[in-house]
Every structure is written in structure tokens, then in C-alpha cells.
Amino acid sequence: MKKNDWKDRLNIVYSTNPDFGYETDDNEEQTTLDKAKQNLRVSIDKKNRGGKVVTLITGFIGTDNDLKELGKLLKSKCGVGGSAKDGEIIVQGDFKTKIIELLVKEGYTKTKGIGG
């Protein structure tokens, strides 16, 4: 297979320069930090959510699969829906104290609550 696949190119469709190096999205998936080193922040958020309250967990450093696994665990323990993407987990409803307790119990010792 050719190294210069057109689907992998970013921002440039075609170039007549033979020495042109196409920008590609070759970012390596980052490894997940140890649970004790994760610096997670738990907060309550209402902005841009139609007045609905959600619990927002930010600061996760690691792979998307590990983020989704943690999100799935938190959502199932709280018995609600939500999502996990872009380094943050959204859990529907006000579960700030419960989520902090769950994270500390799971080994995320640097977890902190933010805001009221």
C-alpha cells in the first residue's frame, strides 16, 4: 500500500511540489497514567445543557478505551446515562459526592471536587 494515502492527508488536497510532505494525523495514542497519578476534577455543570444538571469529570490522561471504561463504571454505579469523550466524562444528574467516593475507592487518590 502506498505511504501517501489521500485519506490520511490533512488540510491539503493536492500539491504539485514533488518534495511536499503532507500533514498526517499520526498522533500516537497516549498511554494511561497510573490511577494514583491521575489528577481528576469533579464538578457540577449546567451550561449549554438546557438547564439540566450533569456531573463533569475532567483531567483524565490516557487512552479513549480506558476513559470509556471508567465512564461506563461510573454511569452504572450511579444508575444513569452520560458520555465519555475528549478527556472528560459526563454523568447525568448531581452525583458529585458519590462519584468522588467511587473514584477514591477505585484508587484515584488525587480526585478533587470543584465548585459548589
TrEMBL record:
Gene3D superfamilies recorded: SUI1-like domain
Pfam hit, one: SUI1
Gene Ontology MF annotations: mRNA binding; translation initiation factor activity
Kinase keyword on record: no
Keyword terms: Initiation factor, Protein biosynthesis, Translation regulation
InterPro entries per record: DENR/SUI1_TIF, SUI1, SUI1_arc_bac, SUI1_dom_sf
GO BP field: formation of translation preinitiation complex; regulation of translation; translation reinitiation
Top-rank taxon, per record: Bacteria
Domain SUI1, first and last residues per copy: 47-107
Family according to the record: Belongs to the SUI1 family.
Protein name: Translation initiation factor
Upper taxonomic lineage: Bacteria, Pseudomonadati, Bacteroidota, Bacteroidia, Bacteroidales
